[in-house]
Amino acid sequence: MTQREYPVTKSDEQWRASLTPAEYAVLRQAGTERPFVGEYTDTTTEGVYSCRACGAELFTHTEKFSSHCGWPSFYAPSEADNVELREDRSLGMVRVEVLCAQCGSHLGHVFEGEGYPTPTDQRYCINSVSMRLSPR
Question: Quick check: 3 and 32 in contact, CB under 8 A?
Answer without folding.
Answer: no
